[in-house]
Amino acid sequence: MSSPALFAAAAVAVGAYVLYTRSAGATAQAETPGGKPPFASFPSFRTLTLAKTENVNHNVKHLQFDLGEGAGPDTTSGLTVTSALLALTFPGGRWLPVLRPYTPINDIDDRGRLDFLVKQYPNGKQSSHLHSLQPGDRVLFFRIPGYSWTANEQAHVGLVAGGQGITPCYQLLRGILRNGNDRTRVTLVWGVNTEEDLILKDELAALQTQYPGRLTTQYVVSAPSSGTSGSAGVSFKRGRVTSEVLKAAGVSTEDGVGKVFFSGPPAMEKALVARDGVLAELGFGKKEMHKF
Ligand SMILES: Cc1cc2nc3c(=O)[nH]c(=O)nc-3n(C[C@H](O)[C@H](O)[C@H](O)COP(=O)(O)OP(=O)(O)OC[C@H]3O[C@@H](n4cnc5c(N)ncnc54)[C@H](O)[C@@H]3O)c2cc1C
């Protein structure tokens, strides 16, 4: 999501929260009332309790939150493919809140829980705070609008992810593949620093087996520790995500890709998504690109 859009969504969400907490009967812990899916509407917010946390690699943790009081084990989150949640916290007792978006990796019909993969950035305010949490700790989340995917709106989509930017792409590709009515083909190009950063490669391989011919992946590793593709049990190209890599992977209008979704760090965004960037070179106009 672009910064102005994110800022606007955050402002609306926080405004709604303030109004809610000031309204009669609001409690200190504002909750979406009832056992209904807590994030079914926009804006909506809920305080979730961390159920478990696990290290995935040297800088990524899997955080699993219970959907919370009033939401039983059979309650779904109410999120749609591809929504994200804004985490609002006060790390280290700060006066001003820190707000950052995170994309659950759950399927929309998962019940009772939300799962996140959070990468810790050096001096990262929110990511360091989330990494410090222990089971039982609570975080306030707001739903923010995401891209509203409609089954078969494209015959073939390209997903281009950089590092931890994989999470929105993963949510979208699972949503497409698991929908029995959706025949869209997906090509994912995922650029990372080392093989260790390919945190969802096993899940992606399982999806390729489960949905033959629907998902193509191309991993691109800039500083592989094993040196050669395949030696760490995964094949990849060495280097960065360039025009040549995208073309070879089939992410171009010539290959029938109708839309490209991008999620990645600022430098990669500048190289790929800018008006005169690599995606424009490959024939994608503004309408055929979406940046999470
Ligand atoms: C729609 C959306 C969904 C997202 N989903 C996820 C998710 O599921 N999991 C996840 O881990 N993150 C996700 N992010 C990124 C997340 O919102 C934060 O940007 C990230 O956790 C860093 O926040 P921070 O407060 O820790 O870092 P800050 O305190 O803001 O920054 C600390 C340092 O880290 C650098 N940094 C911050 N963000 C990035 C970045 N993305 N790439 C490279 N360097 C960076 C900054 O330049 C700075 O030097 C998502 C972002 C968006 C826009």
TrEMBL record:
SUPFAM superfamilies: Ferredoxin reductase-like, C-terminal NADP-linked domain, Riboflavin synthase domain-like. Keywords: FAD, Flavoprotein, Membrane, Oxidoreductase. PROSITE patterns: FAD_FR. Its main location: membrane. CDD domains: cyt_b5_reduct_like. Its cofactor is FAD. It comes from the Eukaryota. It is found in: Membrane. The keyword Membrane applies. Pfam families: FAD_binding_6 (PF00970), NAD_binding_1 (PF00175). Residues 43-152 form the FAD-binding FR-type domain. Belongs to the flavoprotein pyridine nucleotide cytochrome reductase family. PANTHER family: NADH-CYTOCHROME B5 REDUCTASE. This is FAD-binding FR-type domain-containing protein. The lineage of its organism: Eukaryota, Fungi, Dikarya, Ascomycota, Pezizomycotina.
